Amino acid sequence: MIKLIVIFCAVVFPICTFSQNSKAIQPSKTESKQQSTESFDKYCLKNATSLIQNSGDKSIKFAGTVQKLKGNKVPTFKECGITLKENETQYFKIEGSDQILAVKSLFVLRLNHQNSKK
Question: What is the pTM of this model?
């Protein structure tokens, strides 16, 4: 009987202990989702906007006008007060410039973000 108790303790106790430790090591689904969201937000800030040369193409539908840029830095969409749209790339005239600020859609940003992880 004592041998049975010793064997039981030797087998079951380590399994229970390892099971609890492995759960503590793995991040929860909520933490993982939050990290993924933060990663995507950083990606959007860095990659959502770009400057393109205005070729005078009248087929571009402008969403508005933004103030002239300081230096050669491409502003983020947040600096310009722009909200990203799900399925629409937005184009903005830049005051006093022949350049256009292009803001990618969330759909395009998600695809590019997924591909950048591979």
Answer: 0.68
